[in-house]
Amino acid sequence: MHSNAQQKSKKSSAADKKLEALRAKQEKRKFKGASILDPSLDISLDEFTSFTAHLKFSKRVFALLGAGLSVSSGMATFRGSDRHWRGHEPSDLSDIGAFATDPATVWWFFSHRMMKAQNATPNPGHLALAKLAESNSQFFAVNQNIDGLCKRAGFPQSQIAQVHGDLFSVKCSKHQSSKNPCSYVADVTYPISQALTLPAYIDISDPNDPLPKLSHTDLPHCPKCNSLLRPNVVLFGEATSLETTKRIYEFTSGGPIDLMLVVGTSAVVLPAAMYIPIARNTGARIAFFNLEESDEEAGRVWSVDWYFKGDAAVTVAELLKGVVGTVRGTKLAINHASKIEA
Ligand SMILES: [Zn+2]
């Protein structure tokens, strides 16, 4: 009898341990399910709870990502008084006409942006969005940022449309030539050539610091046709590629959208401005993550929407944690350049 009692007690202690482990697991899950809200944020518990419930229920999720997402990674928004680059308006240098007349200055400008983006790190906002995309193949994003940070955060490339192109890609300047167009495209990392390496220890955005002289032959040339290579970004005076536009249309016309996330963008510039009404028309509820509410009609917050005020990198990570869990750490790896021949 004595040994039976011992056996029973052994059994019950094993069962207790199992139960304890199960409880611990459930607690962990509960934490991952995160109904805990960071009190330092200006978000009400009601909004947090209603958004989390809607996100969990949402199948087709659409996102519009803008400059505000990358600000806390150190990327410039090119707004405000310190936006000038060597006395130029950034928009004047991101221009097809400027590349035609002064490709060297345009290449220095983009090399500088590449260097900064390469040294930047994806923030919790990028990582949370990438995790959401990994966990939901029906999540699709239109990215206005060219900094490559979503890609480095692990965002599946089949689920994101780079409407303004990619800093870490070059293409042949004859890609749209009426005579003998050239389809050369390649992924690159900074510096794209020895000649386009920025001088160390000086800020080349300051016009008082001299730029190294560059001759035409120093600029990167196409290995297929020897024309100039150019950044594979959408410059002023150009339109988003037909293929990218088609991918976005395929998503937006592919069925009702349950939820749209508008992140770090005032969404007032076309074509970005049209995505919010398109999503609304399919029945989507909209969640805005921005420092300020837009005063333009397209970006206006309706009473059925959510508006999460603050640094988008912080608020996005906080609001998505109910589904993707808490994101920690950063991915530093930069994909090595590989040549793509299109
Ligand atoms: Zn070429």
UniProtKB/TrEMBL annotation:
Annotated Gene Ontology cellular component terms: nucleus
InterPro entries: DHS-like_NAD/FAD-binding_dom (IPR029035), NAD-dep_sirtuin_deacylases (IPR050134), Sirtuin (IPR003000), Sirtuin_cat_small_dom_sf (IPR026591), Ssirtuin_cat_dom (IPR026590)
Lineage of the organism: Eukaryota, Fungi, Dikarya, Ascomycota, Pezizomycotina
Binding site for Zn(2+): 172, 182, 222, 225
GO molecular function: histone deacetylase activity, NAD-dependent; metal ion binding; NAD+ binding
Source organism, top-level taxon: Eukaryota
Keywords noted in UniProt: Metal-binding, NAD, Transferase, Zinc
Active site, per annotation: 164 (proton acceptor)
Keyword set includes Nucleotide-binding: no
Pfam families associated with the record: SIR2
Family, per entry: Belongs to the sirtuin family. Class I subfamily.
Residue ranges of every copy of the Deacetylase sirtuin-type domain listed in the record: 38-330
Protein name per the record: NAD-dependent deacetylase sirtuin-5
